């Protein structure tokens, strides 16, 4: 018996999260155009190719496009209350600047929503999740161009008109602050990073922020019941030492990420950002209409959380963390995953309190999980994965979410990242697995694509059914 049970609010939305480019496959079916992901066969760390190549696992991914009904039935078996997925922009507007949407693409997401409704699973939809149409990178240099605001507006109007009555929760851009570190994947910016000027980079940031605010305005005008959130990559930054210079360095690193949430929630650029622009000689084209649109602030703040980092003012101690998209200095007190992502459950509680105190907007944790090399074994004649390491990771993070709720933080839900094995965004591997469901596909593209529930599948089903009461607090609590 759990003597000190964890409690979550009634109606808390437990579920899982995915992205179209990492699960759907069918990259050239039913009128879909190419996306930037189709020319990134090694993830954001690898070279950009001129077109789709056979080694790009995302071209087939896990074939959710044809197996969505089977997969959603498995999510329902776990008791999912919410499922986060993204819509592939190039499935709706193949080139991004087409005048008319692709009906076959729209119909696919109708079918996905039909399945979710059949099981009473709430959809949480990301409008743009690292899958900008490739043509927009090639013709416009992505979000560096102001033209993308209007093209995104056309896209979101179609989505809200088609699905607005069926989807209550929307996210405008995935991990919008990642554009500072992965400009092509996040912002479809074709300029090589070493040639990209700070002014062009932050102009792209500005255009995305305006487009996000415009989408929020459109949604609220079409249906006031729609809730629109921003989505940021959250990573609390600790000073490496108590030295005042290290504390200031950590604050400055934090500001680089908080800027995006500040604009989404407050509707204007904060003073520290304006100073940074001045100090770095960054000049932005910000129109009067832009400033007016930014006042359309989000209803909630969603975020991914995988790790924390440290910062220091001492150049000799600035050893960047392995595998960390956001940079930062490794924390000597923490263990790391095989891919170098440091594991810090308490950091989740920390960042939740920080966001709530700063913005006073409801929070939604829409990505959290452990990438690991799972091994398929036979148990009672059935293939499965004994992923106790994943159970321990998720248990400890969910306990910290409950602690944040006790702290007074308002949080609507939690969706684990990669609830079914999918192609990694950072490395384009299948072997970096996150899911509760094993998908029989390897890094060389071989495999049957058959699905097998892991041990964590049953564990998460119990967590959801008990509203978190089966979670186990660490002995130190």
From TrEMBL:
Residues of the active site: 367
Name of a matching Pfam family: Glyco_hydro_1
Any one biological process term the GO annotation gives: carbohydrate catabolic process
Matching SUPFAM superfamilies: (Trans)glycosidases
Listed transmembrane segments: none
GO cellular component: cytosol
PROSITE patterns tied to this protein: GLYCOSYL_HYDROL_F1_1, GLYCOSYL_HYDROL_F1_2
Keywords: Glycosidase, Hydrolase
GO molecular function ontology, one term from the record: beta-glucosidase activity
Family under the similarity heading: Belongs to the glycosyl hydrolase 1 family.
Name this polypeptide is given: 6-phospho-beta-glucosidase
